[in-house]
TrEMBL record:
Keyword annotations: Membrane, Transmembrane, Transmembrane helix
Residues spanning the membrane: 6-25, 61-81, 87-110, 131-152
Signal sequence interval, chain numbering: none
Protein's name according to its UniProt entry: DUF1772 domain-containing protein
Keyword check for Protein transport: no
InterPro entries: Psh3/Shr3
Lineage: Bacteria, Bacillati, Actinomycetota, Actinomycetes, Mycobacteriales
Source species of the chain: Mycobacterium fragae
Amino acid sequence: MSVATSLLTACSGFLLAVLWMDLMFDTQVLGRRDARDELPESVLASIAAYYRRATTGSRPMNRLIAVVMVVLLAALAIRAVRGHDPGWLVAASAVLAGAPIGLALTRTVPNAVRLGSRSDDTARQSRLARAICRDHLMCAGCMLAFVVLWVVY
């Protein structure tokens, strides 16, 4: 196994583990089927406290996740430039890694920071918590597929 392949599997495994930790809190929203309903205060408090610690309270360690994302994309770019892998593998990998990373940077992390601040009313916090959960479920599926793809290939 090459260094780049090892980096791809290690980074994607790390990101999948981070998503697992996030989902342990996010899934509290899943039992609440009606998206129009506000989540109970205990659920919002639990999720918001986690995201406050994970996004702002853990500096500088919270930056590690972004570094791992960059390393994963760099390792994937190296694999693409070297041209030893089939085009379908590189293209699928770019989508499976790029979509969750892009989503995290543009929507999920800003939503988590906002939820962690608890500056919005309960209805808005409930919408943020549900959106974060949906994002993390999609990201976890993509990262799991990415890991499987590189372990099997």
